[in-house]
Amino acid sequence: MLILLPPSEGKTTPRRGKPLDLATLSSPGLTPARQQVLDALVALSARPDAAQVLGLGATQADLVESNARLTTAPTARADRVYSGVLYDALGLESLSPAGRRRATARLAITSSVFGLVRPGDRIPSYRLSGDVTLPGLGPVAGLWREHLGEAMTTALGSGLLVDLRSGTYAAFWRPPAELGPRVATVRVLHEADGVRKVVSHFNKATKGRIVRALLEDGAAPRTPARLADDLVRLGWKVELGESTPKGTQLDVVVTEV
One Gene Ontology cellular component annotation (predicted)? Predict the structure, then answer.
């Protein structure tokens, strides 16, 4: 089973550690594309319009400065760099030893700069949203669509893909139809007074808790239906959608975060 997570916009900046070495990252076939993105982002960060291109406000100049130093900045494990609601709820650092081992083997994170990273990959803190267009390179999502296919199918192997990415990062790579029977996407619906809707905070926090529960439990479902059964067993209300060439959607219905 491969659990595919979105990145977080907010990150914990490493204070010490070796600088980035692309050769040490997982999915080495992505190294040329990673270098392209890094070069384009560092070059952009030296321009006066960098904040505007990156969609940053006037008070976020420090993020542009950090991007300019990406090749020399300290690095840390990706599972310590990514933060935010989903990662706080997941609580990777407080997993049991068995849960941490499963996280290392089963988690992957979509990244605008690195394409795909594993929890143990050492990366610097960066700021690059998935909907940015980099001068001289084009849309970040478009570049990764050209390069992620082989890395993703290799990482997935013969198991189930549990795709928890948001829409922006889902555009980086879409599973081909032949993988459809082995793809489960998860949507979290907040139900109040009989009305259901997607609420960002509930969505992110619940996904984090789902991943944590699966890692601690050790469940390794091989089909979307078995995943739904496991989530019900672990305490969630789950509605299983129909199988399509794009995969099967699981709706997890919550009433409180």
Answer: cytosol
- The Cα 36–Cα 146 span in angstroms is 13
Stretch 100-129: mean pLDDT: 97
Structure tokens at 241: 């959608």
The one-letter code for the residue type at 59 is T
> Average pLDDT, stretch 177-184?
97
- Alpha-helix runs per DSSP H in 133-249: 140-156, 167-170, 200-217, 224-233
C-alpha 116/C-alpha 119 separation (Å) is: 10
Helix (H, G, I), strand (E, B) or coil at 183: strand
Q: 238 near 251, Cβ under 8 Å?
A: yes
Determine how many CB atoms are found less than 10 A away from the CB of residue 135: 13
pTM of the model: 0.94
Question: What is d(CA 63, CA 241) in angstroms, rounded to the nearest whole number?
Answer: 41
Q: In what helix (H) or strand (E) does residue 100 lie, and over which residues does it extend?
A: helix 97-106
Structure tokens at 126: 């960066």
> Measured between alpha carbons, how far is 216 from 234 in angstroms, rounded to an integer?
11
Going from N- to C-terminal start, the domains of the chain cover 2-254
Give yes or no for a contact between 5 and 211, defined as CB atoms under 8 angstroms apart: yes
